[in-house]
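[stage:ingest] chain + small molecule (zinc ion)
[stage:ingest] validated
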Amino acid sequence: MMPASRGADLYAALMARAKADIANTALRIFLHNMGAAYDVERGLVPYKGTKDDVAKIKEIFLGRCCYCDIELGPGDVAQDHLIPMNKSGLGLHAWGNVVPACGPCNAKKQGGDWRDFIIQRAGEHALERHERMYKFLDHYGYKPVQDLRAVAEELYDEVGAIAMTLIESKVKRVRAKL
Ligand SMILES: [Zn+2]
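[stage:predict] done
[stage:export] tokens:
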């Protein structure tokens, strides 16, 4: 049997992880919906990731991965968020922030900065890939000006706390009936 304190530590770690997962999911939904609103604000039909949407962003990069320039077949386009949709990046799910990437680039980039990632993937071609990306951003006018940091952090903290409180209250309610 493991010591009780170690069990408690593991439980605390598990709960902290669950709380972060819930908060991150809520944050992604928030950035997704803010992205749709930002598209509408720019007079665009919100980016939904349909076949047509993907074809459009792929066309701008001449059917190639925006990072390593490998040719993308019809079935192997990953829709990567240039600025990650997380608490530090605060990228939106909107035209201009979704780029076509190959599977390996999409998997390797994770939350990293796209400028650094291009240098890593494109080597001597990095400068022209950077320029191509800036043209892409200009094309869609992706330049959110609203600072979402404070409200995103508030949402992150609130959702995590509320979810855990709610779960605990349900546990107590069920146990009270035993
Ligand atoms: Zn690639």
